[in-house]
Amino acid sequence: MAELRTEEEQLDALKNWWKENGKALMLGVGAAVVIVVGWQGWQSRQATNAAQASILYQSLIESVVVDLDEGRAQTSETVQHLGERLKAEHPKTTYAQYAALILARASVQSNNNEAALAELDWVLANSKEDDIKRVATLRKAKILLGEQKAEEALSLMDSIEPASFSVVYHELRGDAYFLQEDIEAARREYDLALAANTGDARPILQMKRDDLGSGSGS
């Protein structure tokens, strides 16, 4: 603009520039506004969704406590209803995945393994968190072992890394090999489970290992 000497020339130049670039500029500004407003709206919806899921989950936990206090052998309709609502309305939240784990455990206690496996499969299909997937996988493996499906349980556990669940992981693998009468492999897995245990004593695990003796050379 340095070569323009008069205000008229500057104004004419500005008009020409606006004709060439004004529309694109306004479109860009409009798009930016839409993006900002859309982002804020998305954040607001996410916060609302999380709050609603949290309230439902709190109600679910309170209902579970009531069931326990009253000594109910089976899950109440309230617990089932709240769990299903969480899964249906907030399927991608951690609350819904924990709810499914609770429903799976309740189904096992009611001797309904089919329903329990369905809940655990739902968790595996919907969760993005590795630890939740590990919990669901190990619980599913335990159910399969209860049904004498050792090979299927081992194959399932092969799909995960144990991470912080090493004790349970190796103990269940030991149980699977014991069912297959592979005593050496069972010993190895129980030893790994005991070595990984840094918490409270696990007398049942220790008893399983002791029952298998010291090895083929004993």
UniProtKB/TrEMBL annotation:
SUPFAM superfamilies: TPR-like. It comes from the Bacteria. InterPro entries: SecYEG/CpoB_TPR (IPR018704), TPR-like_helical_dom_sf (IPR011990), YfgM (IPR026039). It is found in: Cell membrane. Its main location: membrane. GO terms for molecular function: protein-containing complex binding. It is a single-pass type II membrane protein. Coiled coil: none annotated. The chain crosses the membrane at residues 24-42. Keywords: Cell membrane, Chaperone, Membrane, Transmembrane, Transmembrane helix. Residues 15-213 form the Ancillary SecYEG translocon subunit/Cell division coordinator CpoB TPR domain. GO terms for cellular component: plasma membrane. Belongs to the YfgM family. This is Ancillary SecYEG translocon subunit. It comes from Nitrincola tibetensis.
